[in-house]
């Protein structure tokens, strides 16, 4: 009897561990099934730095990439032949035209699936061909958790591959945040359903993305969706930016990007309000919101094309209008950017254009 009871307990424990442990993207890719997400940096030609994110779903591949000089994302879609590890991706520019084609081969080292992608980029029409090489800098890890049929949570976040202590620290921060959010959500949901006979369920999803990657600067954005009953769920945005130096990942906030005496909030607010007005954000159009505060501008990412701000539903307009995103180009911030700070690499390049 005791042996049967112990066997039952162990079966339940292992089942729970299997369900809650992070899903490893390499496993799906190796089996040519499932969905896996990766982030790469590299070169097209001799002087064109690029950053690329791809999602491999069986033989289908989709994603985007941008050139470090401009930072304007280009959509990618294509196929992967698992037999010979060859990949073909078409980039789509303005007016949905194909503006380039990547043809390359994936190289795997041990458990590190698709560590590099190398081949040729070509431009349709004129026959221009350039070599390219991409090196993977992050896998994305996904995990799920549930309690019964009414509580469900899912999470997706990058796992940086570098052994640099700073990057490993960011990995730890992300894992700790995911764990904390998951445990808090499930606890609150269980407490709710213990005293409420609701027919609906609770759902949460948190997805982090890499906005920019370099040896000295990392920028991340996160989208959190939560449904806890009612007519609809709510979407929120997060961000985290780090200077990487001497093995340390130092978090940076908006003030670190500007000269101490500069009225950067006014400059950012003016640009964002005008952009949101042009996009039809309800409460900007009505005049209910005339300016933005430091709190309104607290969620941001940095990239070669500018400082990118996210505004969740209800921030600048009614829920039905959804989210808004505004990118403030560096050329709009001349005279107030701290040229010794994190933006110097972007601002100097942008100012020449």
Largest β-sheet summary: 8 strands, antiparallel, barrel
Mean pLDDT: 88
Give me the secondary-structure category.
Answer: alpha+beta
Count of helical regions: 6
Number of strands: 16
Secondary structure: helix percent: 10-25%
Q: Report the top-level CATH class of the largest domain.
A: Mainly Beta
Uncertain runs with pLDDT below 50, 5 residues or more? Answer: 1-32
Shape: globular
Rg (CA only): 23 Å
Structurally, the number of domains stands at 3
CATH architecture of the largest domain: Beta Barrel
CATH topology of the largest domain: Porin
Give the SSE order as H and E letters: HHEEEEEEEEEHEEEEHHEEEH
Termini, distance in Å?
Answer: 78 Å
Determine the strand fraction and express it as a percent band: 35-45%
Task: Name the strands of the widest sheet in spatial order.
Answer: 1-2-3-4-5-6-7-8
List the helices and strands and how they pair.
Blueprint: H1 2-20, H2 25-30, E1 35-44, E2 48-57, E3 60-67, E4 74-81, E5 86-92, E6 98-109, E7 112-122, E8 129-147, E9 151-160, H3 165-195, E10 202-213, E11 217-227, E12 234-245, E13 248-251, H4 264-279, H5 282-285, E14 300-303, E15 306-311, E16 324-328, H6 344-351
Parallel strand pairs: 9-10
Antiparallel strand pairs: 1-2, 1-8, 2-3, 3-4, 4-5, 5-6, 6-7, 7-8, 8-9, 10-11, 11-12, 12-13, 14-15, 15-16
